[in-house]
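ingest -> validate -> predict -> emit
validate: passed (alphabet ok, no gaps, 519 aa)
predict: started
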Amino acid sequence: MSTESVLADGVREALAVDPEEFDARAEEEAEIVKQGLRDGAFDNHQSIVGFEYEFYAVADGRWSEESRAGEYALMRVPRRLLELMGFEKELGLHNAEMSTSPQPLSDHGLRAQLAEVRARLEAAENTAGVEGMRLVSDALWTIPPTGETARGYLTDSVDVDGVTVAVNMSDAVRYHAMANTGGDEHRGTVVKAPGVSLAADTVMPESLITSIQPHYQVAQADTLPQHFRYALRIAGPLLALGVNSPFFPPDLYDEGWDGERVLAEGATENRIHVFESVLNARTDEGKVRFPREFHDIETAVDRIVADETLIPMPEPEGTDRFDDEFATFRTKHGSYWRWVRPVFEGASRSSANARIEFRPIPGQPTVRDSIAFQAAFAGLMQALPQQEHPVIGLDWETARDNFYAAVAGGLDAEIEWVGLDGERTTDTDALYADLLDHAEAGLRTAGCPDEEAAAWLAPLRWRVANRTTPASWKRDRVRERLGAGDDFETAVYDTQREYIDRQAETLIEGGFSAWANSN
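emit:
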């Protein structure tokens, strides 16, 4: 039986699930979660950090014919290779994801996170190199596979006995089920971003994007609402520091959008536009959005249950996990897409936890820069509630506007902040001095020596001081190439190749600041 036929059968099984019964199970299990919260099952003696790191694969010019044919063109990762690397599959066949082991928030814990990412990524790169490919840490790929267009790669699908199957999507039923749920009004996808409107039958266009996702596990679950409210206030400022997707593959741009117009009117973080537009087309109310705040822990649980069901998957089989008691609730949470979201889970009662998954930050040029965001987020989650920082008084609408201002303009955006004195400011230097000082203070209270706490955040302070982000680095190089006479496609492709060349030298051990300092 072909892979497509097996997938189609799995999709049909998922579509046969009664959504009302699925929602009823999730609602019943939510009461189990609430009782566990009341009983202290999700409490821990200290804060814990974790990390998810997404990559895409490109041809490095060695060994295989496909690799030699395309310089840094996108490549599909063989499933056997993914298993050898110890990485997890993501949406597209070109994707790979790493998840770190949770560690205590401390200097040793952060060092363990950094060491684990470096060790596993180095081993994965060595394994991928045998196939003539390398893994890239980035936010949005721009060079399609050799001999293909980005549009063709992202929209290629087949009909298998009435089930739509995306040709270049991983063989996970939930991914393919998204293309076959809902009525006719929810069929199909359109990527909507400045200059781009790509129509597709499936959610495969989401595979354009990759991210990093720091996790912060609170020590006491009942403090999650306060931490969450602070997380919403720092989402815009941290995203502005991390923007890294100013360009799409050139063949996706609408007519009339040349290089100069993209530079003048394009966003700095198109990843946000892609994720929102692709998945929000599937439901009546947008599932991917800047979330509302909540003031009690049970409201967080209720909102997950009340979220519109996209994929009513069959009831999962038990695996002797603690959270198997609320497995349907966890399944529903899997499509509760918010840029900041609460998580309740645990393989055992001792490891059960309530945490915040911070999703705004795109993939970064180097591991060191990626872990800097993890340290900043964790430090802020530690310090802001402890010091009762007045930025929690910033109204929700302004926090949301800050987020989308960062999407559009990165560090050039006007972002409103409330300083320690309670005064509002849009001064970039004042904002980040306060933000990063508090992140550093949070790391110190978690046990980091002064010099180490400062070192974790140094890559982000450098970005502020130099007004340089990965997105601005890419934009500057495209602008220079256009000025030298290159057409837009060549300028974007050659900038992407330079990005990957620089990353090859610095991904594991170096830092993004070296890229600018070596010009």
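The first strand starts at residue 48 and ends at 59.
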